[in-house]
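Lecture notes, part 5. Sequence design as translation. It can be helpful to think of inverse folding as translation between two languages: the language of shapes and the language of residues. The source text, in structure tokens, appears below.
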């Protein structure tokens, strides 16, 4: 029987997914002895060729259950498994079985490994699942992290970690008690261009840091979306997209803010902003005198950038925080002239990079780079920003304990 267009598209997508997922597995199964080596082809003046690091054989990869099959899970994380070297999708948890079965077929996940939210505790009896990726609305992160930890699984939880400091602490405690890892999915901290900028800062290439200015805004549509409901989202633009500015100022500087000043605004009568703020403007003051001024909005046209200004040079990313097409520029005086140069760094899939870091930490029993404490600190800062906006004065922040684990391993020369 001839296939209809949608059927054919589905079939091609299905075959594509299988091919993408099985190719690395086949490559790894070939093993070191079958590796084909090529003699050098380029002159010594060219960039040296960098052979790609090996992919783990399929049976050695960390099996992941994906909880919540919305945009980030279906459009970004699941496709990223094709580029992952250390993880594989083995189970799905969703409230919509028909949708979940379609996705299970695309990724060769057995129907028996498709669970409803009610049955998430059954993960305890699925030894093929070692890690759980939580991609639910923010207000559900705490419950599902705690349930996954109780089921004996390591957790990779989307940002923002949760809706409150209390929930973050509950998640950290549940994973600690279960002896399982908890990583918050701060993909920028695993992305090669951001990593190169961190190195530039640590190597003092910009001189002492002075200012960070950043905007992360997008114009929201549907007033019924969970992102505009307080119970599910925790807040408006700040926890969803403003969070990226907070986290970048912290990981680029390596400092923690001691004081914040915040302001929020919602256009009166706009049905989208009955429960959460439309925009938030905030300043973070750091111990060295480094200052971050940031703005985030759910009502302004998409805009994602930062400029990090040191004594001797500035670095700018525009766009920053995006999934693809990041651009980094650095400007300093050379031979008496201001010289701005674009920094070329090969793009890598950020979702695969964070997933592989998580999987390697599970395989090697190492500490993750962005643990629960990193998410908790951002939540403390957001609560202080809201408090400052409510009270109309600056709010002080006590220094946190250690928030970040060791630097991620740099695979593939990034
Ligand atoms: P989404 O709305 O596309 O998906 C949410 C999923 O949760 C859907 O499958 C929905 O059916 C399910 N769900 C279960 N219970 C629900 C309920 N009561 N109300 C609404 N949906 C419910 O959202 P998304 O964009 O995939 O975001 C999911 C999480 O991922 C959020 O925490 C978000 O902040 C985070 N996220 C992270 C990034 C990133 O770059 N790291 C990007 C986007 C989203």
């Amino acid at each position: 029987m001839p296939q209809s267009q949608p059927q054919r598209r589905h079939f091609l997508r299905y075959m594509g997914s299988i091919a993408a997922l099985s190719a690395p597995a086949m490559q790894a199964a070939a093993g070191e002895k079958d590796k084909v080596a090529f003699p050098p082809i380029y002159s010594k003046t060219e960039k040296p060729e960098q052979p790609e690091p090996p992919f783990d054989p399929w049976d050695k990869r960390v099996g992941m259950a994906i909880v919540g099959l919305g945009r980030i899970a279906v459009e970004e994380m699941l496709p990223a498994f094709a580029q992952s070297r250390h993880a594989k999708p083995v189970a799905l948890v969703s409230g919509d079985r028909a949708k979940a079965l379609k996705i299970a077929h695309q990724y060769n996940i057995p129907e028996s490994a498709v669970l409803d939210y009610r049955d998430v505790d059954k993960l305890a009896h699925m030894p093929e699942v070692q890690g759980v990726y939580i991609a639910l609305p923010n207000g559900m992160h705490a419950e599902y992290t705690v349930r996954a930890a109780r089921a004996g699984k390591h957790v990779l939880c989307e940002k923002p970690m949760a809706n409150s400091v209390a929930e973050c602490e509950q998640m950290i405690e549940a994973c600690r008690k279960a002896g399982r890892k908890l990583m918050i999915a701060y993909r920028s901290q695993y992305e090669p261009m951001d990593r190169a900028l961190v190195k530039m800062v640590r190597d003092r290439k910009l001189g002492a840091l002075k200012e960070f200015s950043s905007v992360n805004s997008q114009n929201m549509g549907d007033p019924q979306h969970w992102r505009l409901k307080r119970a599910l989202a925790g807040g408006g633009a700040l926890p969803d997209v403003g969070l990226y500015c907070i986290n970048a100022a912290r990981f680029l500087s390596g400092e923690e803010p001691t004081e914040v000043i915040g302001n929020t605004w919602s256009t009166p009568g706009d049905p989208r902003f009955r429960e959460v703020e439309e925009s938030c403007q905030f300043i973070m003051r750091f111990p060295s005198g480094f200052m971050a001024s940031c703005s985030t909005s759910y009502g302004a046209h998409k805009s994602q950038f930062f400029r990090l200004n040191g004594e001797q040079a500035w670095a700018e990313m525009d766009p920053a925080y995006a999934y693809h097409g990041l651009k980094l520029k650095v400007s300093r005086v050379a031979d008496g002239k201001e010289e701005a140069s674009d920094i070329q760094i090969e793009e890598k899939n950020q979702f695969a990079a964070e997933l592989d870091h998580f999987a390697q930490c599970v395989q090697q029993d190492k500490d993750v780079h962005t643990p629960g404490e990193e998410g908790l600190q951002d939540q403390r800062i957001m609560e202080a920003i809201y408090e400052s906006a409510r009270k109309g004065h600056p709010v002080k922040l006590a220094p946190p304990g250690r928030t970040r684990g060791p630097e991620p391993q740099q695979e593939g020369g990034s």
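The translated text above is only one of many valid answers, since several sequences can fold into similar shapes. The first helix runs from residue 5 to 30.
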